[in-house]
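Data card: per-record layout.
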Amino acid sequence: MHTIIVCDWIPPAFGAVGQYMEQRARGRAAAGGQTTLIGLGAEAATEVTPGLTIRRLAAPPVDKQASMLKRGLWALGTSLRLLRAAHRATRAWPNEPCEIVVTGSPPFLAYLFIVYNRLVWRRTLIYRITDFYPETLFAAGHLPWLRPLAGLFHWLRRGATRIEALGEDQRRRLAESGVPAERVVVVRDASPIQDWSRRTPVARPFPPDKAILLYSGNLGVAHDIDTLCQAYERHVRHGSDRVRLWLNGVGGRVESLRGFCAERDLPLHFSAPAALEDLPEVLRACDGHLVLLGTPFWGYVLPSKIYACLELDGPVFYVGPTQSDVHLLSKDRAAGYLQADPGDVDGCAANLESFADRAMAGRD
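The structure for this 364-residue chain is written out next.
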């Protein structure tokens, strides 16, 4: 069977969904399947290897600071371009069984594919649900006027042949929206890093008497930074002042975190995201990994960074709800796990002290 996978940004462009979909496409091709991966890139390009075709459509990056209308128009236009490219790919294999795997990014993509499949393709369509839309918009407080139409999106979602959820928390959210249990399967991502052989860490950005807590990846609206910021200020001003934050990423809340620290003269090291092949050296240069999630977003967003953190087996410092699979995957880890609920500044500040204690003890 020929498989067509459609997502947003494919490496080397930065995008977690594309990383996992490329990994899936290459794995399937290596196992002998015929796969076409369609996504976005800085330039239009087509890469053909045995069993695998990767097609990148040239697209400008979405402006995170633009209005919701402009971002919505970008998502709609980009989704239509991806739909056209997928249609051309189906016509290239007219006489063979074909399944289509569509992700939830850009936001309109999956719904367009589900409708088009019912009307035109009539193929097996697998919805690899990543971030839920429009639920993530509602959780962020955006477009409340769209809430009466939530049932329409739930109905459209049920039009997929099968839904692949990232975790048990997403399965629960899908059940709440009326998706039959037999139509949902949990398929977890693996770490996007396949080569951990590069073991020499990059230079640590803080002195050796400080415990470094690293946030690496996208820092967006779903990630709760308020609790961490308040706890970090308390730790520096009134605590032991042994923890230092390192931000290695992009996203809509990067400037908010940098601005908070700059205004209060709190230590923060910022670096641009490392290339995937360089990431092991970055992840090994810290004492623990920071994962953030706002309470309204559990089950709608699963921070994919958790998979690399678990594979690296380093301490995980989580500020987020226990309903999320981040907690489910991390709570039994022997290497060290600290969790605080969003809004629990006292608990988060206490965890910073515990994190510093463990990091310093590990050096003795």
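Known properties of this structure: The chain is about 35% helix and 20% strand. The two ends are 56 Å apart (CA to CA).

See the next section for split statistics.
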